[in-house]
Design goal:
52 residues; mainly alpha; 3 helices; 48% helix
Length: 52
């Protein structure tokens, strides 16, 4: 098990992976977020880069 935490600045090269992981989390554990899968699935890459 890997207990390391790493941080990355959200940019054009990793925004698609971030969106995939975040939407998966929203779908599987919606109570852990202040947003909904339905709402965030409408965001495009530029929305994510601007807001996060």
């Amino acid at each position: 098990m890997n207990n390391k935490i790493s941080f990355q600045i959200l940019n054009k090269t990793n925004v698609e992976e971030y969106k995939r992981i975040r939407l998966e989390g929203l779908k599987n554990s919606p109570l852990n977020f202040g947003s909904s899968f339905e709402e965030e699935s409408l965001f495009n890459d530029n929305d994510l880069l601007k807001n996060y």
